[in-house]
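A quick aside before the break. I want you to see a complete sequence-to-structure record at least once, exactly as it would be stored in a machine-readable document. Don't worry about memorizing anything.
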Amino acid sequence: MLSLNLLPSSNVTFSKTSHKCPINASLLDPNLVNRHRNSQFPFHTFKKPTSKINNRVLFRPSEETLSQISKSRLDFGKILTTPFGFSSRFLARAASGAPQEASPDGEIEVSKPNKNLKLALIFGLWYFQNIVFNIYNKKALNIFPYPWFLASFQLFCGSVWMFILWSLKLQPCPKINKSFVVALLGPALFHTIGHISACVSFSKVAVSFTHVIKSAEPVFSVVFSSFIGESYPLKVWLSILPIVFGCSLAAVTEVSFNFGGLWGAMISNVGFVLRNIYSKKSLQNFKEVDGLNMYGWISIISLLYLFPVAVFVEGSQWVAGYHKAIATIGNPSTFYLWVMLSGIFYHLYNQSSYQALDDISPLTFSVGNTMKRVVVIIATVLVFRNPVRPLNALGSAIAIFGTFLYSQATAKKQKVQAGEKKD
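That is the input. The structure line, written in tokens, reads:
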């Protein structure tokens, strides 16, 4: 009679039929052996060993085990590749060297020091790129006041950057079709309006003033969303009051006030709000396309929208404006550098914002975006030495604080909606 002898001292190796990694029997709970002897083994009965299978038995994992293995593989598939071939999660872990902890669900959790360092890297890169763009964009506009050309060039740099990433396979290229392009036409149009309007505002007034007015974007978001049937709690409506008051106070006391700059910033707010609203409706069937690829295609289509209009609006002045700019600065390479940096860093800071939204919660992103305006305003005031009156600084602070309150109120609203969907 054939008998199966399982002794604790013998290292019998079990192997799964669906998994290549062997399991040492000595690591198993001895109670499992007793359960098998009592014919109460919960997974699968052992097959009789043959001459070809020396002391090896087949072990069939349960469906629960398979689901856990599958889940762990899927978790690793969630890592989003950045344009440089590494995810921001990987960079943060490598930089910190902090250990990773496993949660009871089997998912890897980042330790607190590692998480703090990751947030510092994300926001630091995002803020730095935004500051560089605003400084060199304004420097270029001061000697070459043609915002339509610069706005087109910035979209051109973003388009070339994305084509390089896709061609070198540093970023997976999305599969596009006619319906995807048609769905992008609306968001790209509103993105074009928002971008060119902001550039026009930058050319007319101080960068700090434009950013104060652009902090009023939540006001337009609430108003336009209400028109299409979205409802907001009282806290959200109350949060936009300090934004309106602060922007009004800052506009009245602004030294470099110009109606063209004011209206440019306001129209920019409208454009970006409509882009966000329209994107939710037209792009909801293309959720497999990540944010960076989505922004890349929006930039490409926006360039096709903007450049022909730019040539019509101010194209006849570009040559004369170029020679005047070179005569003003003296060194052509400096002018080329300013224009190039404004174009490259415009795309990079938008790219970083999309990657930041992939890595952090919407609330953290909203708070970070509010603080970004504070950092940019302070940096540009220091670089360009713009005169700031006390009331102007107070109005700017009130408006930005209102933006912070708005982000807190809308985050609570989203949590309530998420809870209702689960129920």
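Two observations worth writing down. The chain has two domains: 13-61, 135-360+368-415. Confidence is low (pLDDT under 50) at residues 1-59, 64-110. We'll return to this after the break.
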